[in-house]
C-alpha cells in the first residue's frame, strides 16, 4: 500500500473522530462495566459488527490484533479486505495508551502521529471471548469476538448487550468474514 494512501486513511480517521457529522447511536454512553486484564485482552479480535464510519468504508474481514508494547503501550494492527472479502488487504498500525484510573478499560488510540482518539472497552466476556467497544460521543461502536463467525445465539446476545448499553442496534453494520 502506498504511503500516501496510508496517510490519507490515518488523516480520515483523525478527522472522523473530531467531526460531529454522522448519526449518534448512543447519546449517553455508559462508563465501562468492568476492569480489563490487558494480558487477556491482547491477541486477535474479529469485528462482528460496527457502526459505519469513514475510516472503515467498504471493509470486510476486519480484524484487530493487540500486543503489549514497551512502556505500557499497546501495539495495534487493524486489517480488512477492501470491497469484498477477497479484495485487496488493507492494514493500519497504531498504538494505544491506558487512561490512568480506568481499570485498563479506557484507552487512547493513535493511528496518526500525536492525535489520539478514545477507545472504551464498555463490556467484555469474563473469558474474553467477546468485547463491546465504544467512545464518549456515541457515534462509534464495535462488537468484537475471538472467532470470525460466532453462533447466532452469541450474535443475538451481543446485540442485546449493545442495546442494554443504550446503543441503537438498528445502525449496526454486520462484517462479512
UniProtKB/TrEMBL annotation:
Gene3D superfamilies: 2.40.128.20. Pfam families: Lipocalin_2. GO terms for biological process: response to stress. GO terms for cellular component: cell outer membrane. A lipid is attached at residue 18 (N-palmitoyl cysteine). Involved in the storage or transport of lipids necessary for membrane maintenance under stressful conditions. Displays a binding preference for lysophospholipids. Homodimer. This is Outer membrane lipoprotein Blc. It comes from Rhizobium skierniewicense.
Amino acid at each position: 500500500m502506498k504511503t500516501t494512501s496510508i496517510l490519507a486513511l490515518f488523516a480520515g480517521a483523525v478527522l472522523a473522530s473530531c467531526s460531529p457529522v454522522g448519526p449518534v447511536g448512543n447519546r449517553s454512553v455508559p462508563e465501562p462495566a468492568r476492569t480489563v486484564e490487558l494480558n487477556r485482552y491482547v491477541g486477535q479480535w474479529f469485528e462482528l459488527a460496527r457502526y459505519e464510519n469513514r475510516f472503515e468504508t467498504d471493509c470486510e474481514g476486519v480484524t484487530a490484533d493487540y500486543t503489549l508494547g514497551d512502556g505500557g503501550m499497546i501495539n495495534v494492527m487493524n486489517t480488512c479486505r477492501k470491497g469484498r472479502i477477497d479484495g485487496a488487504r488493507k492494514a493500519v498500525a497504531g498504538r494505544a495508551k491506558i487512561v490512568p484510573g480506568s481499570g485498563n478499560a479506557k484507552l487512547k488510540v493513535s493511528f496518526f502521529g500525536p492525535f489520539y482518539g478514545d477507545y472504551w472497552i464498555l463490556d467484555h466476556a469474563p473469558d474474553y471471548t467477546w468485547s463491546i467497544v465504544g467512545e464518549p460521543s456515541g457515534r462509534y461502536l464495535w462488537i468484537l469476538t475471538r472467532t470470525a463467525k460466532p453462533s447466532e445465539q452469541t450474535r443475538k446476545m451481543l446485540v442485546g448487550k449493545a442495546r442494554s448499553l443504550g446503543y441503537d442496534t438498528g445502525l449496526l453494520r454486520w462484517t462479512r468474514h
